[in-house]
Amino acid sequence: MNNQNVLLPRPEHPRPDFMRDTFYNLNGTWQFAFDDADVGLAEGWYRTGYPLDKNIVVPFCYQCEASGIGPNDEIHPVIWYRRGFTVPADMQGRRILLRFGAVDFEAMVYVNGQAVGGHKGGYTPFALDITPFLVDGENDLCVRVVDRPDPVQPRGKQNWNRGLMGCWYTPTSGIWQTVYLEAVSDLYVEYVHITPDIDKGFAYAEIMLNRKPDEKVYVSLDVSLRGNQIREVIASTVNRSVVVTIDMNINVTHIPVELWSIRNPALYDVKVKVIGDGEQLDMVDTYFGMRKVEVRDGVIYLNNKRLYQRLILDQGYWPDTLITPPSDEAIQEDLKWTINFGYNGARKHQKVEDPRYYYWADKMGVLVWGELPSPYAYTDETVENLSATMLEFIRRDFNHPCIITWVPLNESWGVPNILNNPRQQNTASMLYFMTKAADGTRLCSGNDGWEQMHTDICALHDYAAEKRILDEHFGDREYVERSTCDALRCYADGHKTSGHEAFMVTEFGGIAFENIGPQGEMGGMNTWGYHGKVTDEEAFFARFKEAMDAMVEIPYNQGYCYTQLTDVMQEINGLLTPDRKPKMDVEKVRQLNRNPDWHGDRDMKDAVASAW
Known about the structure:
With 612 residues, the chain is α+β, with helices and mostly antiparallel strands. The chain folds into 3 domains: 24-184, Jelly Rolls; 189-288, Immunoglobulins (Immunoglobulin-like, Sandwich); 304-607, Glycosidases (TIM Barrel, Alpha-Beta Barrel), CATH 3.20.20. The protein is built from 9 helices and 34 strands. The chain has an 8-stranded parallel beta sheet, with helices on one face. Strands 3-2-4-10-7-8 form a 6-stranded antiparallel beta sheet, with no helix packed on it. A 4-stranded antiparallel beta sheet has the order 1-12-5-9, with no helix packed on it. A hairpin with a 2-residue loop joins strand 18 (268-276) and strand 19.
């Protein structure tokens, strides 16, 4: 593996779930320019060596301090990047893929002055085969990015105007995840998706090649657990796609199948090789977990055991880097805080997270909800953007066992008239069924918050500050589901429960301190929490305990999601400050996070898969 400079920002491989032994990191200092007049194409800024007037540190956006340009909330719809690179000696003579983790929003890439391809979508990766455009020695790489303040884009929490607004924050433009090179042969693996079946003890691996082979090739899967080989499976194919069945019950070491769970996050490593004419053409390292999640008759099960989810809302922002994690250690720190506060999972809110977050959640046994960033206007392009991003999200992160739920819509954002607009209702239903078609192994919360169409989880948001009000809202599920009041509008007009959905309160709490965290105004916006701010820790726990008691006493509730892990700019209702300092007694929060007393045992021990 070629990881040439550990002093580079984010030097680690960005995809532990899809790794080759060739890796050349292109993070670091690039040339950079704003193109507010949009003259760069006409003036040929993409031509080799054209000087750009600024420098930027990739993979950090110009709006953040770590980039060397920010903090900056100015809107620059067109920006350019440039750097030189030489293909490492051990990668020469092979095909070279140029990979971008994420570029917000629309990118066009040039190598040595020639356009080599592009991508639309701010949260998902893309790769380009740049082999035909390379020269010996130094090569010129240039990227033009267009990121207009357009609410039709899947923006998530990125404001589409200057300044801070409500719960929307400074936007991210341009490259915000790692850029790197890989070397491959003419025939190589494009992706590997592994679907576990714990009831039968099988796993099914779909290997997609970049093209149809010219002649028969063999695909080998070497499966191991903690360094011990379990078994090797070999299949032949003359097609681009091949599905390989792995019988996990039969293995060379006679080790019983281990399930991935919160208590035991067992991960099976898989080495995938493509062999043609006796020669190894490609090799990729990936992994998967043997786990199952489903909903039956309103109850959620993980590995056939009842699951009560104690989730924390996590927006994944950092003061100096915005939505780019500043380091791999910062990702691990957030997951450790999640665990230490007593939560067994995180709802990653309005963000397709850095893939190493899901990797560490896999390793640490933390449940995750994968949520699609929302647009804020409804057009034909909205439908296209949501569909494309959701499918690319699933494709990238299919193998992560930590992800147990997909969320294509939140609080009707992007479909503002879903309550009674048939087309917007059909959009929500389409996203649900498309998600289930692309990945039938996970749950889908169709429109998290209210106004549901098709869904596996009837998810409501309620920030009432008093237990008596929450008790009134959720005392009776039938009342909740037939209610027509705005605060508890479970279903859109003409739609009702199918009877199978699990119920969860997926946003509540949001308690802010009056004297902890940023105070006063930030960018012209007052800091805030829900229902005002508490004055001290005692007042916090009085409200927090009322909210927690209300959640666990809802008899049909399958879990909750508290808002939120950290303060984010003007929204100061986190358990942690933006620099990850706890505001209150961590152990006391942990003790108040609990499962309901279903079986006379408050912690449920082994009866609930979520018990720590």
